[in-house]
Design brief:
With about 150 residues, the protein is α+β, with helices and mostly antiparallel strands. The chain has 7 helices and 4 strands; from the N terminus they run E-H-E-H-H-H-E-H-E-H-H.
Length: about 150
């Protein structure tokens, strides 16, 4: 899958969000301190796609549905404060393809690789009540928590 996941900054976060909402693909801006790993975001994106395919989606668009899965919440009002981008100087930009990423790239002032260290990922996972000992276990637990969060009350 040719997804693009980058750390970025911008002069105006609202302008980037506005441009992202006009993309034909899926673009989401997230709080880096709440993103566990690249697999966390990829899992959220794939779960969102599946929910639309199976007509079990909560949100009306893919980007918000992905945000719900990534935050492990069912309510948009609960998901945005948890994992929505807050700081224009530091956020994770996810796009499901290069063309969609390029649509927002001109508004970004800095673009860097997003590769959190395993120790940081394990620490971040604790924000979601996920306790893992290593990276392999972490990936499994994140995907499980996403699924359970969607079906539980």
């Amino acid at each position: 899958m040719p997804e693009v996941i980058k750390l970025a900054s911008a002069k105006n976060l609202e302008d980037v969000l506005k441009a992202a909402s006009k993309c034909k693909g899926t673009v989401q801006l997230l709080e880096p301190s709440m993103v566990i790993s690249r697999k966390h975001l990829l899992g959220a994106y794939l779960n969102a796609r599946l929910s639309f395919k199976e007509h079990t989606n909560i949100a009306k668009n893919m980007a918000i549905e992905m945000l719900l899965f990534a935050s492990m919440r069912k309510q948009i009002k609960d998901a945005i404060p948890v994992i929505g981008a807050k700081d224009p100087q530091n956020f994770v930009a996810f796009a499901d393809n290069t063309k969609s990423f390029n649509h927002i790239a001109t508004l970004l002032t800095d673009i860097r690789e997003f590769k959190p260290a395993t120790t940081e990922s394990i620490k971040t996972a604790k924000n979601y009540s996920i306790d893992a000992r290593n990276a392999k276990e972490l990936d499994t637990l994140v995907l499980q928590k996403m699924a359970v969060a969607r079906i539980s009350d």
